[in-house]
Amino acid sequence: GAVVSQHPSRVICKSGTSVKIECRSLDFQATTMFWYRQFPKQSLMLMATSNEGSKATYEQGVEKDKFLINHASLTLSTLTVTSAHPEDSSFYICSARVVRGGSTDTQYFGPGTRLTVL
Amino acid sequence: QKEVEQNSGPLSVPEGAIASLNCTYSDRGSQSFFWYRQYSGKSPELIMFIYSNGDKEDGRFTAQLNKASQYVSLLIRDSQPSDSATYLCAVPARYNFNKFYFGSGTKLNVKP
Asked: I need a labelling partner for A34 at 20 to 30 A (CA). Which of A59, A73, B27, B103 fits?
């Protein structure tokens, strides 16, 4: 159980284009999903928390107009990188929260999307 | 002081040995603790979580929690080369379980 998928797994795009990444919880409903970014040999960096039916909560320093998040259903969240530039090239990973009760709620990660902007 | 701290390593152990990975946390009120494994180029995968003092065993993995000293450890028995990865410790924020504080990870190398 607790399987999270992401699509696409890898994308190469030209500078200035927009890229949409999908994150799905396959066998559970996720009211909360998370979007992380990881540069090579660096730690995970939380970008935003995605809540079903409401606006996402962005971490400090993350441009909400550049990284559009939509959580339209209990199993799908999308991240759109608008007007992508080479510095946006990174490994984008989503996770979904499994509710067990309070402090034992668990995050399960999708396989990640490697974005390369030329 | 960071919320969660780990030694970046690398920690090198011979195949068959016990690997011991440590994590310290700053909030004495933290209640649950998670260990993730991340292979190079892949996303993190959950190994186990612990929320009671003492030990929790799952196969070759044992998580140890000492709340008084504010550390949590992960022991890997009979280490295999396939265990070579970066191990991340994560602690939810006390008043916001949505927010996980991740350590920077310890890189483990298991040598054949």
From this structure: B27
